[in-house]
C-alpha cells in the first residue's frame, strides 16, 4: 500500500484562488489537491488534502497522522506565526514534516518572518506559489525512500 502523506492547510486557505490572488495566485485548493494526487501516484505515494480554519481540528488531524500517515506537508497559514500548540502536535509526530508557504513570507510584514512550525520542520519552502506543494511532495518521496 502506498504511504500516505497528509497535506494540511490552515485558516483562509479554503479561499485559495479567490483570496488576494495577487499574492496567492488563481489556483484553488482543489486544483492543488488534484495536481498533488497525480504527482503522488507517480512517486508511489498517496496524498490526503485537509484544510481547517480551526486550530484544534488541525491538531486533531496531526494526532491521527501518528497512526495513518508517513509524512506531513503543512501550510499552517496564519497559525505559522502564532501556534505553539501546532508545533507541539508536530513534535509528537515521528515522520518527516515539510512546511510550505505559497508566498515569500520573508518579503512580507515582519510578523510573518517568524515561524513556530519551522522549529520542527525538516524543510521549508516559501515563495514558489502553489508549486511549493509539489516540490515538497518530491522532497518527501526522497526522504521516505
Ligand atoms: C501563508 C503565509 C501566511 O503568513 C499567511 O497568514 C497565510 C498563507 C502562505 O502560504 O504564503 O495565510 O502561509
UniProtKB/TrEMBL annotation:
One of the protein's GO biological processes: amino acid biosynthetic process
SUPFAM superfamilies with a match to the protein in the record: Type II 3-dehydroquinate dehydratase
Assigned EC number: 4.2.1.10
Record site feature (Transition state stabilizer), residues: 19
Keyword Lyase found: yes
Key words, A-Z: Amino-acid biosynthesis, Aromatic amino acid biosynthesis, Lyase
UniProt entry tagged with the keyword Transmembrane: no
Binding site residues for substrate: 75, 81, 88, 102-103, 112
Function description: Catalyzes a trans-dehydration via an enolate intermediate.
Protein's name in the database: 3-dehydroquinate dehydratase
Amino acid at each position: 500500500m502506498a504511504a500516505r502523506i497528509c497535506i494540511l492547510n490552515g485558516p483562509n486557505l479554503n479561499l485559495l484562488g479567490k483570496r488576494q490572488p495577487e499574492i496567492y495566485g488563481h489556483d484553488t485548493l482543489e486544483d492543488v489537491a488534484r495536481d498533488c494526487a497525480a504527482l503522488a501516484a507517480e512517486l508511489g505515494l498517496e496524498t490526503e488534502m485537509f484544510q481547517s480554519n480551526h486550530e484544534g481540528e488541525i491538531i486533531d488531524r496531526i494526532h491521527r497522522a501518528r497512526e495513518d500517515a508517513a509524512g506531513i506537508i503543512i501550510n499552517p497559514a496564519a497559525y505559522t506565526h502564532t501556534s505553539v500548540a501546532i508545533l507541539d502536535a508536530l513534535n509528537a509526530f515521528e515522520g518527516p514534516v515539510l512546511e510550505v508557504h505559497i508566498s515569500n513570507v520573508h518579503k512580507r510584514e515582519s510578523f510573518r518572518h517568524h515561524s513556530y512550525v519551522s522549529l520542527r520542520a525538516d524543510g521549508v519552502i516559501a515563495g514558489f506559489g502553489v508549486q511549493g506543494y509539489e516540490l515538497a511532495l518530491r522532497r518527501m518521496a526522497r526522504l521516505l525512500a
